[in-house]
Write a structure and sequence with these properties.
Largest sheet: 3 strands, antiparallel
Helix content: 25-40%
Number of strands: 3
Number of helices: 3
Structural class: alpha+beta
Mean pLDDT: 84
Distance between the termini: 26 Å
Shape: globular
């Protein structure tokens, strides 16, 4: 079950299910049905970027590791 955020730019996958605390693997979070924010646009941004290095800065608990894992699963 998916829910659309008011501005239409982000989707919440499996709303109402637990947030993946302590899970840093995207595949594990998906198979356990955890509540996730769909950040698949991140993949397009990374693949279309012409820069040699991408520095991704976000606060703690902002999904940096799970985004990196999602990108790895996509590219494999």
């Amino acid at each position: 079950m998916n829910a659309q955020v008011a501005n239409g730019s982000a989707r919440i996958v499996n709303p109402g299910n637990p947030v993946p605390r302590g899970i840093d693997d995207f595949g594990e979070a998906r198979t356990q049905g955890c509540c996730l924010v769909d950040k698949s646009r991140f993949i397009g941004d990374v693949l279309t970027c012409d820069d040699k290095i991408a520095l991704i800065t976000r606060p703690r608990r902002f999904g940096k590791t799970i985004n990196q894992s999602m990108l790895r699963y996509f590219l494999e």
